[in-house]
Structure formats: structure tokens, C-alpha cells
Design brief:
Blueprint (H helix, E strand, L loop, with lengths): L1 E6 L7 H15 L3 E5 L3 H6 L2 E3 L34 H11 L4 E6 L1 H12 L4 E5 L15 H22 L2 E6 L6 H9 L4 E3 L7 H13 L5 E6 L6 H8 L3 E5 L11 H19 L5 E6 L2 E6 H4 L11 H8 L8
Parallel strand pairs: 1-2, 1-4, 4-5, 5-10, 6-8, 6-9, 7-8
Antiparallel strand pairs: 2-3, 10-11
Helix pairs in contact: 1-9, 5-6
The structure holds 6-O-phosphono-beta-D-fructofuranose.
């Protein structure tokens, strides 16, 4: 068999570990030929690829980013009035390359594209990845816990400077429209206020929580906020009378080496992808369900996102401990 691998969408720690997981099992155990497609779906449009042999798959486990490169190319997105030739070109190139399966490593957008390609008759396997942890159909994505570790360390570091200056420190974390990183890092880093898009927030409640801390003799507060929410630090400063600063952590959350947990998760998902290919179980996304590596049909995943629900135990326990989620 000859398989192709690509990574699409935003990068995250663990992509190279999963390329290695797919590639080494495919080559060594199953005797497949493996090619890497550069720059996501752009590479398939432009026939930009490289053979992934043993040498190319060495030294990848701890490496951040993706050796294949990535892009946000969405081949099914058409402009009004302009015929979209991209899906046809991709299907043609897939066949000309002699591929038996295309492995697509990516987030929600990538899984949707993978599903649409499967509807064109291509054999596709999806592997979920994103620091945002918002891919529908899996309990967890690799990259997430590495990002949470980085964000937690950043919040830890804000405590001493916030305390020294008696300030409100707002830290904006990534997550797109999902509050997973903010909730997990906010709780792990001991934030006093945690604001996520799934719950929304009321600024009055945020200010009340900050002032309540002052009444209890706590002269500083840490507010963790997800990038999907707009927060006005000047208004907090004006309405509470406490000096307020904002830090945006940004792409640091996405860069660098994956944690041990994410390396192993990426390896397990990559290995399972090759099992599905050998069994001819195409058009599925490998996933984690109840701590087990399994898979779901791409048709169920496409077009959905997995968000934090208000009954998440970290929210329930956080509220009981007096942490404000900006709503009550
Ligand atoms: O999908 C991961 C993510 O880091 C989001 O949290 C963020 O909104 C987005 O990517 C930004 O990525 P880019 O600037 O590369 O489009």
C-alpha cells in the first residue's frame, strides 16, 4: 500500500510525533510506502510531496511544529460565480500519486475537508490535533495538555508580579471559541476569575469578584480569559479602582516540544490510523473515548465542535471554592 500524510490548520505540539507514529508503523510493521504532503491541502493541489523513509522519520518525537509544514487552504471553499476546480485537482493528484489512503492530521476544519474528500471517493483517515481541544468525536486532542502546561506556568509567574504591585492581571489564552485551555490552565494556575466563551460573562460580576477579594484582604487578582471573549481592562481598572494590566500569551502556547503525555497520545493515534488502513476501515477519525484509542466515522465529526459544558467538574468544583466564572 502507498499512503500519504498531511498536516493542515494551525500547528501544535505532537504533530511530528504522530507523523512518526503513522510512518514508522506503516513502514516497519506493515511494509507500506509513505509519502509526506507539504503544506496541508495546498501540497495536494500542487503535487508538493516527499518520501518519508526511515531517515526522514528519525528525530521527530520531541520536535515541535510539523516537518511537513501546514496551511489553512480549504479546497472546498468556493468564491461566488467562480467554478471551484480544487476538489477535482486534489482527487486527480491523489490517484496519480497512486495513494491507497490519505491521512489528514488536523482540527475541525481539516476533518470536515477530509470528510468531503471521502465523499469524492478518496480513502481518508483523520487524526485530530489542536491545542484548543475542541474536535468533536474525541475526548482529547494532542497538543492540548502541552498548551495547558505552558499557560499554567505563565499564570504561576503572574502571581508574584500581581501580588507585588497589588494589580489585577488579565491573561488572555488561546482556544478559538472553546474555553478548554482557559478552564484547565486557569484552574491549575489558581486564577481567581475564569472567563470562557461557553458561559459568557457579566463585567459587573467580574468586578464584584475582584472587590470581594479586596474586602477579604487579597490585594491582587488573576483573571484568565479565553481569546473568544472581549474584555476591557480599562473598564475593570476604572470600575474597581485597582490598577489593571493585560497579557496576551499568544503563539507561545502552540510552539515547542510536546509533553510526554502528548507524545504518547500522538503515537497511539498514529499507530491506530495504520491499523484502520490495513483493515480497510476508511473515512474514519481516530479518537480517544473513555481512555481507549478507537475511531468514529468522519461523517459524524464534520462540521461540529466540542465545547466545555457548564456541568464540567472543574467548573462545579471551582464555583464551590469561590472562583468566579463571571456569571453569578
Ligand atoms: O487552532 C489553534 C489556534 O491556536 C487558536 O486557538 C487560535 O485562534 C488560532 O489557532 C490562531 O491561529 P492562526 O493565527 O495561525 O490562524
Amino acid at each position: 500500500m502507498r499512503i500519504g500524510i498531511l498536516s493542515a490548520g494551525g500547528d501544535c505540539p505532537g504533530i511530528n510525533a504522530t507523523i512518526r507514529g503513522v510512518g514508522k508503523s506503516a513502514l516497519t510493521h506493515f511494509g507500506m510506502e509513505v509519502i509526506g504532503i507539504r503544506s496541508g491541502f495546498s501540497g495536494l493541489l500542487e503535487n508538493d510531496y516527499l518520501p518519508l523513509d526511515d531517515d526522514a522519520l528519525s528525530g521527530l518525537l520531541s520536535l515541535g511544529g510539523t516537518i511537513l509544514g501546514t496551511s489553512r487552504e480549504k479546497p472546498f471553499k468556493s468564491q461566488e460565480g467562480v467554478p471551484n476546480e480544487k476538489p477535482r485537482i486534489i482527487a486527480e493528484n491523489y490517484r496519480n500519486l497512486g495513494l491507497d489512503c490519505l491521512v489528514c492530521i488536523g482540527g475541525n476544519g481539516t476533518q470536515k475537508t477530509a470528510y468531503k474528500l471521502s465523499q469524492l471517493g478518496l480513502n481518508v483517515i483523520g487524526i485530530p490535533k489542536t491545542i484548543d481541544n475542541d474536535v468533536w468525536g474525541t475526548d482529547i486532542t494532542f497538543g492540548f495538555y502541552t498548551a495547558v502546561d505552558i499557560a499554567t506556568e505563565a499564570i504561576d509567574r503572574l502571581h508574584s508580579t500581581a501580588s507585588s504591585h497589588k494589580r489585577v492581571m488579565i491573561i488572555e489564552l488561546m482556544g478559538h471559541k472553546a474555553g478548554w485551555i482557559t478552564l484547565y490552565a486557569g484552574m491549575a494556575g489558581g486564577a481567581d476569575v475564569i472567563l470562557i466563551p461557553e458561559l459568557g460573562y457579566n463585567l459587573k460580576k467580574v468586578n464584584q469578584a475582584i472587590l470581594h477579594r479586596v474586602e477579604k484582604g487579597k490585594s491582587y487578582s488573576i483573571v484568565a480569559v479565553c481569546e473568544g471573549l472581549d474584555i476591557n481592562d480599562k473598564r475593570i481598572e476604572y470600575e474597581t479602582g485597582i490598577e489593571t494590566r493585560k497579557t496576551t500569551l499568544g503563539y507561545v502556547q502552540r510552539g515547542g516540544s510536546p509533553s510526554a503525555f502528548d507524545r504518547n497520545l500522538a503515537t497511539r493515534l498514529g499507530g491506530h490510523a495504520t491499523e484502520l488502513i490495513v483493515d480497510g476501515q476508511f473515512n474514519r477519525m481516530v479518537c480517544v473515548h473513555d481512555d481507549k484509542i478507537t475511531s468514529v466515522p468522519l461523517s459524524e465529526v464534520a462540521g461540529k465542535a466540542r465545547l466545555v459544558t457548564p456541568d464540567h467538574d472543574l467548573i462545579v468544583q471551582g464555583k464551590r471554592m469561590g472562583i468566579s466564572f463571571g456569571i453569578e
